[in-house]
Amino acid sequence: MLDVQFGQASDFGKVRTNNEDACGSFLPSSRKQARSHGYLFVVADGVGGMDLGEVASATAVSTLTREFAQAQPDALLTSLMPKLMERANIAVHDCRLDPKYRGQNMATTLVACALRYDQAVVSHVGDSRCYLVRNGQARQITEDHTLVNEQRKMGLISADEIAASDARHVLVRSVGPEMFVAADTTALTIQPGDVLVLCTDGLHDEMKAREIAAIVSQKMDAAELARELVARAVQIDGGDNTTAQVIRIRSVEQVGMYRGRPYRLPA
């Protein structure tokens, strides 16, 4: 049976007076629901410079978690997650039509991880990230939708130059500004002992992957690990809102796949 331990933390930082980050989760209420729906974890970062980043991030998170809870049981996660990301995008885009927000721009990054059986499906738009930490080593699952990352892929800038670039936070894809957005989706097989970290750029800008791995590999409660990650990032700089979710995999239920559908393996 899939069993996870989960914790999250968020901080305004040392400069901002409001928090444009948002996070949320769907936790199954029974073993049956853990198999039919699974778990969902979500982090969003309202885009600075827009009018209502905190509205955009909160709307995206609430839409995604609500729609996940209401999804058809046993839905294929690799198909479901991109659809839910698009619904979150439409919800943020439609906020601009609300009389109290009319004429104001809003956008957010969004990263979400759904877990069921021994599978994790990660969907994202923007530069909020997901890391998989296994045996003390961190692997970045998501790829930032930023101008500098596009330039890196074209060979115009090196990975080392990205951190010093003034354009490192310029997004080429975000949730809300357009009626449609394409989320990138990745499926993973998870193992007991794995740790998944979802975070905003307030964290990953200040800490390298190996530092994140070192912290979450400690034998501590997931909530304590999330608080330590955020506190360390704020201590280093604190110029941005900072949010982290830590999901520790305690056990999984191995499955096979047939025509894209999971089935439980015999004991």
CATH superfamily (homologous) name: PPM-type phosphatase domain
What is the level 1 CATH name? Alpha Beta
**How many extended strands?**
12
Average pLDDT score:
91
Derived from helix and strand composition plus strand pairing, the structural class reads: alpha+beta
Strand order of the largest sheet: 1-10-9-6-7
What CATH architecture label applies?
4-Layer Sandwich
CATH topology assignment: Phosphatase 2c, domain 1
Contiguous low-pLDDT stretches (5 residues minimum) are: none
Describe the structure.
With 267 residues, the protein is an alpha+beta fold. It has one domain: Phosphatase 2c, domain 1 (4-Layer Sandwich). The chain contains 8 helices and 12 strands. It is globular.
SSE inventory with pairings:
Layout lengths: L2 E9 L9 E6 L4 H6 L2 E8 L6 H17 L7 H19 L12 E9 L2 E7 L3 E6 L2 E4 L6 H7 L5 H4 L21 E6 L5 E5 L1 H4 L4 H8 L5 H15 L5 E10 L3 E4 L2 E4 L3
Helix pairs in contact: 2-3
Keywords:
5-stranded antiparallel beta sheet; Phosphatase 2c, domain 1; globular; 267 residues; alpha+beta; 30% helix
Task: Summarize it.
The chain is α+β, with helices and mostly antiparallel strands and 267 residues long. The chain has helices at 31-36, 53-69, 77-95, 147-153, 159-162, 201-204, 209-216, 222-236; strands at 3-11, 21-26, 39-46, 108-116, 119-125, 129-134, 137-140, 184-189, 195-199, 242-251, 255-258, 261-264. The chain has one domain (3-142, 173-251): 4-Layer Sandwich (Phosphatase 2c, domain 1), CATH 3.60.40.10.
